[in-house]
Amino acid sequence: MSSRLISIGMPIYNSGESLRRALDGLLGQTHTHFELIISDNASTDGVTKAITEAYARRDSRIRLTRQPVNLGAVPNFLWVLKQAKGEYFMWAADDDFWSANYLEELALRLDEVPEAILATPQVQIATTFRNGETEQEIIHPAPDEGREAMIEAYLQNSKSCTWIYGLYRTNWIQKHASEWHNYPLMGGDVIWLWGVILQERIVGNSQATFFYTADHSARKKQTYRQTVEMCGGMFYHMCRLSWSRSPARDRWRGLVNAFRHYYRHHLYRKDLLNTSIRIAKIALLWCWIGLEMGVRTVIKRLSSTFARPGNRIAETGLTFVKAQDQMDSPQERRDAA
């Protein structure tokens, strides 16, 4: 068994009673040398505060912080990471569960492969859809047959992004997790992990199991435009990463892989191109979204170049851009934990 200290970061918000099961799963790990960093993102339900305080009094390995204001989802994830003191780190969600040997098996895998920065588990996903139907799915850990095999496994199943809940080397993840700010909230995990796969060594261990809960029944359904924007943004960032992080000889192959992911999991799966009318709509939306982004970029640049105290035109331009950014942001940026 590995003797290394492991830091577990748990960002929470209005978690409710499901939090008990998650905490019990973590505190019952066979690897006992860990710290559990809980960041309550200004929960308002009352239940979350009572549960976390009770568990913190019971187990000294828990470090509980209640944020005075809601930081937002991604900043809260990064906050718990910043507090980590262990050699290894993992994120934990408040509605998930882990096999009792989860920390032990993944820590041993990182000990065995010093150049690896992430050890991934086998993932069992339980999905609840809006119509009440449920689905069970198993995602295998990252293969050990080389980068091409790992890329292929990631392309074949979009839910391989759940690998982000594996075990990291703390010094590496603390340096690179801030890149998440460069990506949209929806789909940012897929983009970020794609960049990691292109450059870093990732290993897997099927002896460790992560039980992931995906509840779509309570989610607000996206509009057609929101879906197009999300998919288009993911395609852009994955192409950019494929070009910038792949060796020169593999750049075009990287772009092809990015398109394969875009087509398989977005255009085809979300039925964005199932009729000629939708093909025309998506083309027009891309043109309009591109024009909007171009105009806003020009306004930002002009405003920053010519802004002077008392220059109302420049100041108005900046205010307009900021207001538009806030309007275009999804509601989840303000409400999510």
Estimated radius of gyration: 22 Å
CATH class identity of the largest domain = Alpha Beta
Poorly predicted regions: 310-337
What portion of residues belong to β-strands? 15-25%
Based on secondary structure, the structural category is alpha/beta
CATH architecture of the largest domain: Alpha-Beta Complex
List the secondary-structure elements in sequence, H or E. EHEHEHEEHEEHEHHEHHHHH
Distance between the termini: 34 Å
Give the number of DSSP strands: 9
Number of helices: 12
CATH topology of the largest domain: the name is: Spore Coat Polysaccharide Biosynthesis Protein SpsA, Chain A
Shape: globular
The share of residues in helices is: 40-55%
Mean pLDDT: 81
Major pleated sheet: 9 strands, mixed
Total individual domains: 3
The CATH superfamily of the largest domain turns out to be: Spore Coat Polysaccharide Biosynthesis Protein SpsA, Chain A
What does this structure look like?
This protein is α/β, with parallel strands linked by helices and 337 residues long. The chain contains 12 helices and 9 strands. Strands 1, 2, 3, 4, 5, 6, 7, 8 and 9 form a 9-stranded mixed beta sheet that branches. Strand 6 and strand 7 form a beta hairpin. Helix 8 runs antiparallel to helix 9, helix 8 crosses helix 10 and helix 10 packs antiparallel against helix 11.
Write the layout of secondary structure elements.
Layout: E1 6-12, H1 18-27, E2 34-40, H2 47-58, E3 62-66, H3 73-82, E4 88-91, E5 97-98, H4 102-112, E6 116-128, E7 134-139, H5 147-156, E8 167-169, H6 170-176, H7 188-199, E9 201-215, H8 224-245, H9 251-267, H10 276-306, H11 312-328, H12 332-335
Helix pairs in contact: 7-8, 8-9, 8-10, 10-11
